[in-house]
């Protein structure tokens, strides 16, 4: 019985130790991605800050990868990745700031075009916000096209579909 208790205890300690190592490595990667994204954000490179990607570094004379806020969220996407560090929530806030406060309508549409075939969980929100910005700029034809595109591209997402349909109905009144 004593051997069973020691074995179970050892397995539990081993699991906690390995999980802690993996968590810490994810945390360190997240901090790096967050810092890189923040530098891009501060330079006005909102697409790069949001998604990350390869870009040319003139000093190094080569393409380098720069992380984005989305990589921070991806690192902690698994429901078992707990506890989520504060950098996760900061990245969420920065993503919302980019989508709702920083992007112009044309930048939002350009981001959609750039990342449409690439995994990006924020494209539906970007597209809806882009349509709203076109309305603010009195570019109603573009707004209508964007909302219809949102329905066509993300029609299975009920929230996005309903929002786009609502905006189209308001435009057609």
Question: Could you please describe the fold and organization of this structure?
Answer:
The protein has 173 residues and is mainly alpha-helical. It has 2 domains: 1-102, no CATH class; 104-173, Serine Threonine Protein Phosphatase 5, Tetratricopeptide repeat (Alpha Horseshoe), CATH 1.25.40. Helix content is 72%, strand content 6%. The protein is built from 8 helices and 2 strands. The chain has helices at 2-42, 46-51, 69-75, 86-102, 105-115, 123-136, 140-154, 158-171, and strands spanning 53-57, 62-66. Helix 1 (2-42) runs antiparallel to helix 3, helix 1 (2-42) packs parallel to helix 4 and helix 5 (105-115) packs antiparallel against helix 6. The N and C termini lie far apart (77 Å).
Helicity level, as a percent range?
A: over 70%
Q: What does the average pLDDT come to?
A: 91
Q: Structural class, please?
A: mainly alpha
* Whole-angstrom Rg: 21 Å
**Strand arrangement, major sheet:** 1-2
Low-pLDDT residue spans: none
Sheet-strand content, in percent, reads 5-15%
Q: How does the major sheet shape up?
A: 2 strands, antiparallel
- Separate helix tally: 8
- The string of secondary-structure elements, in order, is HHEEHHHHHH
- Gross morphology is elongated
């Amino acid at each position: 019985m004593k051997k069973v208790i020691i074995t179970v205890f050892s397995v539990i300690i081993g699991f906690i130790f390995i999980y802690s190592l993996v968590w810490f490595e994810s945390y360190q990667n997240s901090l790096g991605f967050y810092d890189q994204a923040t530098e891009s954000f501060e330079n006005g490179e909102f697409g790069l800050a949001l998604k990350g990607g390869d870009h040319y570094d003139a000093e190094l004379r080569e393409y380098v990868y720069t992380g984005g806020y989305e990589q921070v969220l991806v690192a902690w996407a698994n429901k078992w990745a707990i506890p989520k560090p504060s950098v996760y929530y900061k990245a969420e806030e920065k993503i919302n700031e980019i989508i709702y406060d920083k992007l112009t309508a044309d930048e939002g549409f350009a981001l959609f075009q750039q990342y449409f075939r690439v995994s990006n969980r924020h494209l539906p929100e970007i597209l809806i916000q882009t349509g709203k910005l076109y309305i603010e700029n009195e570019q109603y034809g573009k707004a209508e096209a964007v909302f219809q595109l949102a329905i066509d591209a993300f029609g299975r997402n009920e929230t996005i579909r309903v929002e786009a349909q609502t905006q189209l109905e308001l435009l057609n009144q």
